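Reviewer 2 asked us to include a model.

Predict the structure of this chain.
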Amino acid sequence: MNTKVGTRRKAEPVDGLLLLNKPAGITSNQALQKIKRLLNAKKAGHTGSLDPAATGMLPLCFGEATKVCAYLLDADKTYRVTAKLGEATDTGDTDGKVIETAPVPDHDFNFWLDVIQGFRGEIEQIPPMYSALKQDGKRLYELARQGITVERKPRTVRIHEIQLMEANKNRLVLHVRCSKGTYIRTLVEDIARAAGTLAHAASLHRENVGDFKAADMLDLTAAVAMAAEGPEALRQKLLPADIALASWPEVAIDASAVGKFVGGQAISVGKSTDGLVRVYDPERVFLGVGELARDGLLAPRRIFHPAQTVTAAHG
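Predicted model (structure tokens):
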């Protein structure tokens, strides 16, 4: 009998962000689809993919909150990585097979401090073959799985902070805050190479994305337990979309201008700054993203139309 299929609830409009503490062993998209089903949500997306072997903060966006995904891609990220020295794998992490080994010189803590000093600031990285970047319409990891290696152009990224937490004969533990587009697996390999050996990421945990707090993350097992009796309990864990833009300046517009703004018209707000801003109505309802020009005109860029049932949960 197909009773289960027949009684499956129709997906509903659900708006908000969920900060998942992604477990190892699943892709970012698999994690997204799991939470989407638990929430019974119609529309979903994620930002800043994590490798299957990696754990940590994966912002999941639902409904209207998917409109902030693009802005989150630009956010800085913080990681804790453990590097296993002396072994290189084809994927740069524990999911791959060991393809080369090298002796590990008996360096002390201060030696490694000097090495990592050279990786602060702007650096160039060659993206790994096992990555989601596209070349000639194909993902690099698809080519890598076929045994094909292609030339990749170096990319400039920024390492804002890098701290050496631990160094011993076979491993390093690093804490890294970096710009978008940084491959921590590649950083580990490059640091080891600069020290005359090899390495791969034995474990990788993302602690933060942008201004989000690690304390707001939810484990997958906890999410499953919450949703066991229905999606409502889990929906209470959703964060409003504008939290993703908390570091941006904000503009509150008059009630008389709300209709024009959400209708796609630029309005005059008398501000002299310029750039992207969060826009609110007089009741502090988030209306969307606007771009403010120096002449005081505020142009709508992304308009938000949240579902009433969900936004009510956040007051």
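The chain has three domains: 12-74+212-242, 77-209, 248-314. Residues 134 and 140 are 6 Å apart (CA to CA). We have added this to the supplementary material.
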